Amino acid sequence: MNSVIPIQSSNKALGPNIQHERGQREVFCGLTGIIWLHRKIQDAFFLVVGSRTCAHLIQSAAGVMIFAEPRFGTAIIDDRDLSGIADANEELDKVVNQLLRRRKDIKTLFLVGSCPSEVIKLDLARAAQRLNKEFNPHVKVLNYSGSGIETTFTQGEDACLSSIIESLPPAHLNEVANENKKKLLIVGTLADVIEDQMQRIFKDMGLTGVEFFPGRNSQKMPVIDSNTVYLLAQPFLADTAKRIEDRGATRLAAPFPLGVEGTSAWFEAAAGAFEISKEVLEKALAAPRQRALTAIARHKTVLENKKIFFFPDSQLEIPLARFLSRELGMKLTEVGVPYVHRQHLEQELKLLPTDTLIMEGQHVEQQLDRCEQANPDLVVCGLGLANPLEAKGYTTKWSIELVFTPIQGFDQAGDLAELFSRPLFRKEKIAA
Ligand code: SF4
User: Fold this and answer.
1) What is this structure's pTM?
2) Is 147 in the pocket of ligand 1 (CB under 6 A)?
3) Cβ pair 47, 110 in contact under 8 A
4) Which of 49, 81, 259, 328 is in Cβ range 3.0-4.6 Å of 88 for a Cys bridge?
């Protein structure tokens, strides 16, 4: 069906109108998440069980490491596997055996499913079970799907983190579980530099023992139980959040830590849960917030009153739109999002101008028509749309860059603003 179907009428208390459409989509698959996940979890290996296309995607997106041993690879499903001549399970076991016997540094192995492994119905959950019998406790084998069938690229992280949570022992089996002390968990992959900055702010707030998930070490996992309160650092973790809550944890409602306003409110939510006074919070946030305000001010001169159009891709679109409209004065023509998680985004939606058009899902032809009508100054889209749009004279920003680049927190607010101002600044220079 091509029509645009309003599913939620505009309600000023709740935020803008959300519409949705279905049709052809232009998004990357969940394998892409391996690129930032393998950098974060430093003793894990991601083995894609897929085709040469999958191998090509990962290698070209992540680059080839010349000096270091890579921590991702592809077990190629070839014609013999597809036609059923070879036993794909046997082949997979052979590859895993070779890999784990050679690489003693690997402590967690992710078997990552792909479109081809789903097509031949290769059961990677059973494969992980079988391989765990052989390699656990030295290596934990987990599995998740990064397939591009009905997913968008950030869902790869959600599926990966969700598989880790599922594999954790029940909290009551853990020695430190019954301390009965409220603890804070930050959920979502953040660059190490951001994690360190946030830890410093939490420490200045008097909050110690804050854990980040995923961490750098896959063997050191948080204990999640009813004493856990958690803050999402990324807006695309629906399944992970559900599994965390199944273990009794409570989510703190907050906007996402993008820009000065979002980051301040995110820390405020933590302060509220741990009864930290306004004075202590203010003292901890004042200096980094001032640095961030100074850093974004110079980008406002380029971005203010410029029109921006988002094609749905990263699921970061709503928090980014909030930042760009409220802190940099940009005009939102359309905010396309692959999927809107109403609860996780509730605080964000309230902050958007009530006349913002949020389009959930995608019908790329219709959206291109609307983009042309809106005639935006800047278009945020996937790589597949960027070149044709540039050829038509639009200035574009690749949405995938917003996931690869450290953008969360106060000290990154200026860099985040620059990701949007740079292409416009460049265009102005060329035109001058
Ligand atoms: S998982 Fe599917 S969409 Fe992704 S690279 Fe492999 S074949 Fe392509």
Assistant:
1) 0.92
2) yes
3) yes
4) 81
